[in-house]
Amino acid sequence: MKPNSLYAQLELISEDFPASGSTSSAPSSVVSRLPKRYLHSLGHALVAWLCGSREPHIKVRHNRHSQVLFEVYDPFAQTRHTFYSEQNLRTWLDQRYYQ
């Protein structure tokens, strides 16, 4: 099943979706006390974690000479890059986007 179709199916679940089992069970009573927006954000986080992200992870670091450098991990290509200027980073991001 494609990740997008799984996400679409989760979005179709109504907020009043009945809990499985009896209503007196301990897990369902805990779930019923949680705010719906918390459950909604938890669902989004779970889908993002299961499907993974194709967005690059960028960390700003400083070398021993206090120069700024940008470390990038690209999960799609599974590569790491280091850039010493923001302009070089932006150029790489633009090229990556249009490939």
Based on the model shown, name its key terms:
4 helices, 99 residues, 46% helix
What is this entry, summarized?
The model has no long low-confidence stretch (mean pLDDT about 80). The chain has 2 domains: about 50 residues, no CATH class; about 40 residues. It is about 45% helix and about 20% strand.
According to DSSP, the number of beta strands is 3
Task: Please report which band the strand proportion falls in: under 5%, 5-15%, 15-25%, 25-35%, 35-45% or over 45%.
Answer: 15-25%
Instruction: Quickly count the domains.
Output: 2
Helix fraction, binned, reads 40-55%
Poorly predicted ranges:
none
Structural class: alpha+beta
Describe this structure in words.
The two termini are 25 Å apart. The longest helix is centred in the middle third of the chain and has 16 residues, at 36-51. The chain has 99 residues and is an alpha+beta fold. The chain has a three-stranded antiparallel β-sheet, with helices on one face. α1 (3-12) packs antiparallel against α3 (36-51). The model has no long low-confidence stretch (mean pLDDT 79). Helix content is 46%, strand content 18%. It is elongated. It has helices spanning 3-12, 26-33, 36-51, 86-97; strands at residues 57-62, 68-74, 79-83. The chain has two domains: 3-51, no CATH class; 57-97. 1% of the residues are buried. β2 (68-74) and β3 (79-83) form a beta hairpin.
Chart the SSEs and their pairings.
Blueprint: H1 3-12, H2 26-33, H3 36-51, E1 57-62, E2 68-74, E3 79-83, H4 86-97
Antiparallel strand pairs: 1-2, 2-3
Helix pairs in contact: 1-3
